[in-house]
């Protein structure tokens, strides 16, 4: 016996509809068939996916973890379905963009608004993913454009760098450090600091600077995204240093911006498929990205 696509479809449906009856109706099959296939799937993988209380199913922790991987594959299938419908309707002007959450919130809305004023017929699909699953999905060739913070080896895609200036200090508006225009590492001594996770490459760069200067900050919270960091800062939890896109986005949301005395250039990696046809709309969208990026650099240079 081997794992089948049908079993995965049934598992996904049960996770979505929380019921074998509703899952069966959505798939056009019977409830006994769904229950049987779930049992076969559990037997194959070697652990239970659901706790069963009569007719009620409660997903186990293992099921939740498995569904994260399964749901990403179904996003890809849904995307293919949408493209097929667009082609059938003679409307294949469709751009698919995979991006980190920070860019999806702070950068791409500015780009999309300007681009769609010029190309109203284009349909944009923007998928916001963390770096590791984003890297995986860039290898599937289902995206026209990918935006990551880090670089990595990918034979199926080509990359170029877009410069966004320097990382920026972010502070609550009423923080004492706002009295200075430029902040030295020593200014952060003992300060409540909002950290990125240790896997973040810019966290490592910043940590090395403070370590070399012998400056100890107070570790108060750690989060995975620039959005999360800036939200913490806006709420008064602490101070931090983030990418210029997120900093500019949060400047009107309770966050004060200050330059850091040590230069840490910030770049995003722009990915395109290495093979197959490239949409001319993707080229135009990237041109708008460069325009907006240049404006952000200019704006942040004036702080």
Low-confidence stretches: none
Number of helices: 11
CATH class of the largest domain reads Alpha Beta
Number of strands: 13
Q: Could you please say which CATH topology of the largest domain applies here?
A: D-Maltodextrin-Binding Protein, domain 2
Q: Average the pLDDT over all residues and give the rounded result.
A: 86
Name the overall outline.
globular
Major beta sheet, strand line-up: 4-3-5-13-6
**Fourth-tier CATH superfamily name of the largest domain:** Periplasmic binding protein-like II
Tell me which oligomeric state these chains represent.
single chain
Named CATH architecture of the largest domain: 3-Layer(aba) Sandwich
Q: Strand fraction band?
A: 15-25%
What structural class should be given to the helix and strand makeup? alpha/beta
Radius of gyration (CA) equals 23 Å
How would you spell out the order of helices and strands? HHHEEHEHHEHEEEEEHEHEHEEH
Largest β-sheet summary: 5 strands, mixed
Task: Supply the number of structural domains.
Answer: 3
Helix amount: 40-55%
Concise overview:
The chain has helices at 5-17, 20-27, 31-45, 61-88, 101-106, 108-118, 131-138, 201-213, 226-234, 244-250, 280-301; strands spanning 50-53, 56-59, 94-99, 123-128, 145-148, 157-166, 168-172, 182-183, 192-196, 218-223, 240-242, 255-260, 265-273. By secondary structure, the chain is an alpha/beta fold.
């Amino acid at each position: 016996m081997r794992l089948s696509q049908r079993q995965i479809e049934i598992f996904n449906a049960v996770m979505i509809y929380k019921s074998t009856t509703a899952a069966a109706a959505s798939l056009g099959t019977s409830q006994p068939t769904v229950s049987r296939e779930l049992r076969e799937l559990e037997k194959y993988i070697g652990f239970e996916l659901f706790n069963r209380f009569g007719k009620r199913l409660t997903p186990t922790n293992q099921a939740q973890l498995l569904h994260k991987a399964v749901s990403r594959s179904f996003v890809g299938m849904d995307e293919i379905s949408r493209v097929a419908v667009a082609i059938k309707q003679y409307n294949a002007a469709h751009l698919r963009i995979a991006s980190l959450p920070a860019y999806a919130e702070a950068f791409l809305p500015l780009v999309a608004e300007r681009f769609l004023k010029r190309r109203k017929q284009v349909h944009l699909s923007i998928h916001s993913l963390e770096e590791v699953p984003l890297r995986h999905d860039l290898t599937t060739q289902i995206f026209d454009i990918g935006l990551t913070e880090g670089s990595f080896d990918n034979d199926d895609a080509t990359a170029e760098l877009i410069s966004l200036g320097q990382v920026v200090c972010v502070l609550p508006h009423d923080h004492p450090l706002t009295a200075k225009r430029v902040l030295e590492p020593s200014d952060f001594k003992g300060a409540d600091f909002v950290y990125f996770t240790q896997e973040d490459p810019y966290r490592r760069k910043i940590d090395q600077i403070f370590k070399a200067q012998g400056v100890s900050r107070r570790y108060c919270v750690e989060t995975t995204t620039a959005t999360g960091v800036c939200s913490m800062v806006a709420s008064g939890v602490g101070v931090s240093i983030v990418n210029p896109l997120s900093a500019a986005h949060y400047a009107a949301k309770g966050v004060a911006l200050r330059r850091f005395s040590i230069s840490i250039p910030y770049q995003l990696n722009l990915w395109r498929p290495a093979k197959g046809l490239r949409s001319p709309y993707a080229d135009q969208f990237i041109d708008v990205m460069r325009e907006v990026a240049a404006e952000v650099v200019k704006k942040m240079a004036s702080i």
